[in-house]
Amino acid sequence: MLLEKMLEYNRKFVEGEDLPRKTPRYPNKHAVVLTCMEPQLETLLSDALNLHDGDVEMIKNAGALVSDSYDSVMRSLLIAVYERRADEVFVIGHRDCWMEDFEYKSTIERMSLQGISDESLDSAGQEKNLAEWLGSYQKVEDMVKESVHTIESHPLLPEDIPVHGLILDPDTGKLDVIVYGF
Asked: What is the value of pTM for the model shown?
C-alpha cells in the first residue's frame, strides 16, 4: 500500500539531518495560481515561472476551472487574496489538457462498477446535474476565459486585483497570455 511506503519514507526523512528549510508563512511573490491538477505540470510550471517553495499560493483542480462563483476554488482564491496577501491571480491552463476530451459517461460507468448504487447516482443527480457537473469542459482557452471571468466578476474580489489567464505548452514550457489582467 502506498501509504505504508510514504510513512516509512517520512520516518527516515524526519530522522535525517537534511531537514527542509521552513518556507515563509505568506507567499513571497504575493500571488495565487490556479492551475490544472495534472502531475506533469508540477515541476514544469515552477521551472517555467521561476517559482520556488513559498513563492505563491497554488490551487489545483481538474482543468483549472472555476465553475461556480461560490465553490471551494473561489473560496480559496478569496482567502488567498484577503488572508494570504495575494495581489494578483493567475489562471493557468495547459495545452493537451485531458479535460478537453473528458467523457463524463465513462466516469459515471466507473462509479457504478466500483459499487456506487443507482440510488446514490440518482440522489447526486438531484443535487447537481451530473452530466453538466462532471462534463462542463471545453477548449482550454474557453476554460481559462470562463475562470477569469468568474473570478474577476466576483462581488467579493477587490476591483484592483488583476486576474490573468494563461496557457502553458507542456512540451516547451512556453506561456501564452489569453487574458491580461488590468
From this structure: 0.85
Q: Is the dihedral of CA 48, 60, 141, 158 positive or negative?
A: negative
Contacts of residue 81, Cβ cutoff 8 Å, sequence gap at least 6? 32, 87, 89, 157, 158, 161
Helices then strands, counting H and E runs in the chain, come out as 7, 5
Place 173 in a pLDDT band, splitting at 50, 70 and 90.
very high
> Which strand (E) or helix (H) includes residue 165?
strand 163-168
β-strands 175-179, 163-168 pairing: antiparallel
* Dist. CA 9–CA 164, nearest whole Å: 38
Other CB atoms within 10 A of residue 85 CB: 15
In three-state secondary structure terms, 88 is strand
Classified as helix, coil or strand, 25 is: coil
Could you tell me which residue, 182 or 110, shows the higher pLDDT?
110
Whole-angstrom CA distances from 66 to 21, 24, 63, 149 are 33, 27, 9, 9
Task: Name 92's Cβ contacts closer than 8 Å, sequence gap at least 6.
Answer: 33, 34, 35, 36, 45, 64, 144, 165, 166, 167, 168, 175
